[in-house]
Amino acid sequence: MGKRAALATYDKEFSFVSPVVKYLLFLFNLIFWMISMVLMSVGIYARMMKHAEAAMACLAVDPAILLLIVGVLMFFITFCGCVGSLRENICLLQTFCIFLTIIFLLQLAAGVLGFVFSDKARNKVSEIINNAIVHYRDDIDLQNLIDFGQKEFSCCGGVTYTDWSQNMYFNCTTDNRSRERCSVPFSCCLLSKDEAVINTMCGQGMQELPYLQAGAFIHTNGCIDKLVNWIHSNLFMLGGIALGLAIPQLVGILLSQILINQIKDQIELQNYNLQHRTDPWQ
């Protein structure tokens, strides 16, 4: 009787599903699920703080939209991972694994294509920057992002400072009645270290000056070349960032596949026990 009881207890308590793998995957997804909530909250708040007309005018270059898209995508994927690992649901775990694999492959393909077709990638970046210049005054978040980039890279415009003529406020045509006609944003200006207060009108009329004369007051080189040079100078750092983004994805894929296989083995064991319920000791 003691041997029979021990065997029954063993069959009842034994499980192929490792608690370590299960809760490690759950914790992994929980962390990124909370991050996705933060991204969505920031994106929603940023959208609500804008005027409706300005917000709808530049959806394609709105940083808040980017945060929302990334946040919603992360929320859905990590939700599948959290619930799937906790409930040992193969369908949700496979959904999590498939989406994570697709994202990883898309990132890998984008990196390879960007390296191989660098000229086309440069043209696409130029198109994005020019589009952002056009909508500079339409979105405060986009405006702050452009100003930050121009100050950090010490540049102005896409290819050159006269690219700001694409913006309706800075346009240099004679029929433009804007007070900022032929100007550039203050983030293009050369600022001295001892200047306590930034003169936001320092770029007034700079597009009317020749290249060399304008260079005494503003950065005349475009941001595209500066960005390309920065990328070439920081390839190892960018490679480290890409690896840092890839490792969590690979870990998530690996853990989910291990847990899926363990759950399948557990289901097979349960089915086997159901088919062999007859007591061999009788």
TrEMBL record:
One Gene Ontology term, aspect cellular component: cytoplasm
Domain of life of the organism encoding this protein: Eukaryota
Disulphide bond pairs: 155-188, 156-172
Pfam family, one: Tetraspanin
Transmembrane stretches, start-end: 20-45, 65-86, 92-117, 235-260
Primary residence: other
Subcellular location: Cell junction, Adherens junction; Cell membrane; Cytoplasm; Membrane
One of the GO biological process terms: protein localization to plasma membrane
Membrane topology: Multi-pass membrane protein
InterPro entries, sorted: Tetraspanin/Peripherin (IPR018499), Tetraspanin_animals (IPR000301), Tetraspanin_EC2_sf (IPR008952)
UniProt keyword Metal-binding present: no
Record key words, sorted: Cell junction, Cell membrane, Cytoplasm, Disulfide bond, Glycoprotein, Membrane, Transmembrane, Transmembrane helix
GO molecular function terms attached to this record: enzyme binding
Family: Belongs to the tetraspanin (TM4SF) family.
Protein name: Tetraspanin
Gene: tspan33a
